[in-house]
Amino acid sequence: MDAIILQILNGLDKGSAYALIALGLTLIFGTLGVVNFAHGALFMIGAFCAVTLSRLIESSRTVIDESRTDFLGNPMEVQVPYVVDWFGESGGAFLIDWAVPLSILFAIPIMITIGWIMERGLIKHFYKRPHADQILVTFGLAIVLQEIIKYFYGANPIPTPAPSAFQGSFDFGVLLGFDPLTILYPYWRLVYFAFAALIIGGVFAFLQFTTFGMVVRAGMADRETVGLLGINIDRRFTIMFGIAAAVAGLAGVMYTPINPPNYHMGMDFLVLSFVVVVVGGMGSLPGAVLAGFLLGILESFASMREVIDLIPGINQVIIYLVAILILLTRPRGLMGRKGVMEE
């Protein structure tokens, strides 16, 4: 039982990332009808927003510390972060320690701006083009963004630690009545799941209970009729593209302590997340979230040593096998709508 609970927790962790990226993908497809293969790159850029802010906060100047000497007795040179000069020892240490959560505020305007530039500068020209053209151009854009990140940050993963308050593991077993140290789970992974649930809930609440969201949902169902009412639906859809970019970016920001950012992490998540979107049903927001968590949990169970010993390599293909089975029995996915991506 403890192994099952641990794998469910691992699945919720993976599923949170899949669901967040798939949610953004579905928002873009549902509003603009664009299959955006550059969405994984937005997840990557979000992660590197956290890396960038961490580096900015940790930037320092060299000073001579008379109280410390080297082995020859000479005063030592030490690095003093600028934030320590500006905010004091405790304030500077706090900013350095909490760089990843603070990156949320840093990433939101950046991701919205990048999303707006992508949509206005490139993607709007492909609204009425075939989906194959959209896939090719956005996939090419993803490769360009990936190479830009590689040029400026290098090819190696960049460790970005969580705040010290969330380092270590939570004794989840004691909470459920098991013996101490039976089920240990990292604090930050629990934080990531809670953060994902908050973002997903916020997006659904925004679409369901705000006038802006109601108009967007109406535009997703019947764009022409909404336009005839005198509403500038194109501008609202552009804003939704920026929101979808921000969702992907925030998913990347908070994922940095779990998986050190590297230039190809966007591609790694994109393929799996696109499978999630197809399994959930193209254009279905609830379907994308449901499929994200479902496939995350299945992948986690398939990664158990007992399962791998029985069926070697199953953890690498389980998501695709499940996708094939679901699409054979439900061609539109779990919650897909009739007419979406159907000729």
Automatic annotation (TrEMBL):
Organism: Roseivivax jejudonensis
Biological processes annotated in GO: amino acid transport
Record flagged with keyword Endoplasmic reticulum: no
Transmembrane region(s): 16-35, 98-123, 190-216, 237-258, 270-298, 310-328
Topological relation to the membrane, as annotated: Multi-pass membrane protein
Predominant place of localization: membrane
Keywords: Amino-acid transport, Cell membrane, Membrane, Transmembrane, Transmembrane helix, Transport
GO MF annotations in UniProt: transmembrane transporter activity
Gene Ontology CC: plasma membrane
Entry-linked InterPro entries: ABC_transp_permease (IPR001851), BCAA_transport_permease (IPR052157)
Gene expressing this chain: livH_3
UniProt protein name: High-affinity branched-chain amino acid transport system permease protein LivH
Family: Belongs to the binding-protein-dependent transport system permease family. LivHM subfamily.
